């Protein structure tokens, strides 16, 4: 549910799009007014029109001052107000991660570059969740939080491997496979539309797919051969179950079962809004629930991102700073008892 507050100022977020806040309006008509007589006539006519408008509106209250007569149209606190500490923490965390990436040495090292790109992806996800929560779109932010969760459980699995370097290479190779299959599908789509395509590129892609990625093929129950669904041949649910953190399966349950309707815009996410006004006090209950869900979503985003950061050994991080963020998160809305960095 989107909650807005009319008439409130909206300070520019550091993550907001660079959109103009003021529009210049033309004060003169396009046609020239050169003669003195025309200016006098215009001035007199304008004064009479203003006088008539003043008489017509005298004694009437503006809609804003009178308030809405519809009991359903009530004011709600802006998320910028109700979630101010959480939104600030999200900003601080994302900015600190970007600074850590910039200050990490040996940026040209493939292992360092890999960890830096993973962390940057996570930081951008935090920004996206923040931007959505700031406008009251917690349900839409759930999809981004799920992406961050999947990134976390994949990096946890990668860290458990005997040779992290080999596992990183496997992860990267699967990424190349995905890009190549996407290119072939794109070319096929262009052909279906009757557009010009690069046949030589298609042949090259098909040759690489046939020859270089056989380790990512598997036989199905019916005997056909298909690409595996992930670089480690495990689902997100399996990775959550295998995590060393006992909370990870519970996180999965919330994101992929409890909040599944919101992520997929299923009927369950819409039906409550359709009939909410049948209940007494529905507005207050809806606002309270929206604030709770927004807070939960933001806290999940920060938790997953900080835990992700701890799984990346090749980028700078401050144990003291991460511990401080976890303690701050514990004080917000009865957060979970988060472990300090040293025990993660």
Strand order of the largest sheet: 1-2
Order of secondary-structure elements: HHHHHHHHEEHHHHHH
- Amino- and carboxy-terminal Cα gap: 35 Å
Q: What is the C-alpha radius of gyration, as a whole number of Å?
A: 28 Å
- Kindly state the number of beta strands: 2
Tell me what portion of residues adopts beta-strand conformation. under 5%
Q: For this entry, what is the oligomeric state of its chains?
A: single chain
Summarize the biggest pleated sheet. 2 strands, antiparallel
Overall geometry comes to globular
Helix vs. strand class: mainly alpha
Helix content: 55-70%
Kindly report the average pLDDT value: 79
Uncertain regions spanning at least 5 consecutive residues: 1-46, 62-73, 339-344
Task: Please count the helical segments.
Answer: 14
Architecture overview:
By secondary structure, the protein is an all-alpha fold. It has helices at residues 36-57, 63-66, 79-82, 84-103, 110-134, 138-159, 164-192, 199-211, 236-242, 248-258, 260-264, 267-275, 282-310, 319-330, and strands spanning 217-219, 225-227. A two-stranded antiparallel sheet has the order 1-2. The longest helix has 29 residues, at 164-192. The model is unreliable at 1-46, 62-73 and 339-344 (pLDDT under 50).
């Amino acid at each position: 549910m989107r909650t807005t507050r009319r008439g409130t100022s909206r300070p520019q977020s550091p993550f907001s799009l660079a959109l103009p806040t003021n529009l210049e309006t033309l004060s003169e008509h396009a046609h020239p007014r050169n003669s003195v007589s025309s200016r006098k006539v215009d001035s007199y006519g304008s004064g009479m029109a203003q006088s008539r408008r003043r008489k017509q509106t005298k004694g009437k209250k503006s809609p804003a001052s009178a308030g809405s007569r519809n009991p359903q149209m009530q004011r709600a606190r802006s998320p910028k107000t109700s979630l101010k500490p959480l939104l600030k923490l999200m900003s601080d965390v994302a900015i600190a991660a970007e600074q850590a990436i910039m200050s990490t040495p040996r940026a040209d090292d493939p292992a360092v570059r890999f960890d830096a790109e993973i962390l940057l992806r996570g930081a951008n996800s935090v920004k996206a969740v923040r931007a959505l929560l700031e406008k009251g779109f917690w349900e839409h932010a759930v999809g981004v939080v799920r992406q961050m969760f999947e990134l976390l459980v994949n990096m946890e699995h990668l860290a458990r491997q005997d040779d992290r370097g080999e596992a990183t290479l496997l992860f990267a190779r699967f990424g190349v496979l995905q890009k190549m299959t996407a290119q072939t599908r794109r070319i096929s789509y262009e052909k279906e539309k009757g557009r010009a395509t690069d046949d030589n590129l298609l042949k090259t892609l098909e040759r690489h797919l046939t020859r270089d990625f056989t380790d990512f093929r598997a036989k199905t129950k019916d005997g056909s051969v298909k690409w595996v669904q992930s670089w480690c041949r495990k689902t997100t649910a399996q990775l959550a179950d295998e995590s060393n953190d006992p909370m990870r399966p519970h996180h999965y349950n919330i994101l992929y079962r409890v909040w599944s309707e919101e992520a997929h815009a299923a009927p369950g996410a819409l039906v409550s809004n359709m009939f909410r006004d049948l209940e007494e006090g529905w507005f207050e209950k809806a606002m309270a629930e929206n604030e709770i869900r927004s807070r939960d979503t933001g806290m999940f985003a920060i938790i997953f991102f900080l835990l992700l950061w701890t799984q990346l050994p090749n980028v700078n991080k401050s144990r003291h700073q991460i511990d401080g963020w976890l303690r701050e998160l514990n004080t917000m809305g009865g957060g979970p008892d988060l472990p300090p960095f040293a025990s993660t």
